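Subject: Re: docking follow-up (nicotinamide-adenine-dinucleotide)

Dear J.,

Thanks for your patience while I sorted out the input files. As discussed at Tuesday's group meeting, I've set up the holo structure prediction with nicotinamide-adenine-dinucleotide included as the bound ligand rather than trying to dock it afterwards. The sequence and the ligand SMILES I used are pasted below, so you can double-check that they match what you have on your end before we go further.
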Amino acid sequence: MKKVLVTGGAGFIGSNFIKYLADMRGSWTIVNLDALTYAGNLENLKDLEGSEHYIFAKGDITDRMLVESLFETHGFDYVINFAAESHVDRSIKEPELFIKTNVLGTQCLLDAAKTSWQTGRDADGYPVYRNGVKYLQVSTDEVYGALGNTGKFTETTPLAPNSPYSASKASADMLARAYHRTYRLPVNITRCSNNYGPYQFPEKLIPLMIVNTLDSKPLPVYGDGLQVRDWLHVKDHCSAILTVLEKGQPGEVYNIGGNNERANIEIVRLILKTLGKTEDLIRHVEDRLGHDRRYAIDNTKITTELGWEPAYTFEQGIKETIEWYCTHTDWLSHVRSGAYMAYCESHYGNKSRPGGI
Ligand SMILES: NC(=O)c1ccc[n+]([C@@H]2O[C@H](COP(=O)([O-])OP(=O)(O)OC[C@H]3O[C@@H](n4cnc5c(N)ncnc54)[C@H](O)[C@@H]3O)[C@@H](O)[C@H]2O)c1
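The structure tokens for the complex came back this morning:
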């Protein structure tokens, strides 16, 4: 029975992961540490409230005293760090916050794991750790920068982040790598392509386009819309993370992707068609500064070395996702009106940083 610290578990991927983990490893104890920024929504995890295997802790990953006390209380075996500022557009407006959470927060977690797990030193002076522990840093393919029309990112592609968001994620990856090399901390880094699926905050492409289509509102498309992303269903990302947690070699990086390249405009058209609306709603708007043109993941390492495969085809995944947003109108209206914050507040007190869409 493992004890797991999941950070950022009230966000899109973190909440999907906690539910996945509760299903797959029912005897494990999961502690969800989340600051409940605008992107954190505890309604995503309503089903787990009251479970003896799930604990929510409201707090910031940069809060050393809090993080250390959680380690002392719970004696974690695993840490999975999802907590991050995650929206590129916001990082262009407010880079400092991204450095604080994504870089300093990662360092704080790495330090706490190192201190809590160390049992001694070997003959060469390297720290030795308790058996069966691991720190997993959830990263992104955006750390590799942009591709031209061909080629894919492998784990050895040099990092060349282009936005403040991806630069902060790359910095966190470098810290995780350094803690493995210098202190031999058992670390894995996963770099995943764009996720889609239920519970995604409607500031990101797919839920934003679904929501605007449902409301017959204009669909803002950056530039010519020909930016290509490699899309993966969030549940496939969750299964990949659990695979790396349990089978990944310490110190290794694993790319995660589903070989599903689509241009943004193609996705927008598909959503319009599925929901029976015309392309008149599309509005091309000024492109994002420094917008990466194409990302694509080579997933050979995780598929051949760890035996992971995505379960969803894009066609099935996007159909289910559109249906999910159409049938979860309460969730959507709470997110859009800000009522989800009142829910979080009534359960866990004041939010740390209010925001909206
Ligand atoms: N969304 C994607 O397509 C994608 C793809 C690859 C990797 N990732 C990575 O996966 C992780 C999760 O992404 P997401 O899309 O679920 O993000 P999200 O924005 O939906 O969720 C982030 C969560 O972190 C919490 N958080 C933010 N700052 C915090 C802090 N200082 N302390 C504690 N909690 C804090 C928020 O409240 C929120 O619950 C991120 O690290 C992101 O870089 C995302």
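A couple of observations from a first look. Residues 350-357 have pLDDT under 50 and may be disordered. The pocket of nicotinamide-adenine-dinucleotide is lined by residues 7-8, 10-14, 34-37, 39-40, 60-62, 82-86, 101, 105, 138, 140, 169, 192, 194-195, 201 (CB under 6 Å).

Let me know if you'd like me to rerun anything.

Best regards,
T.
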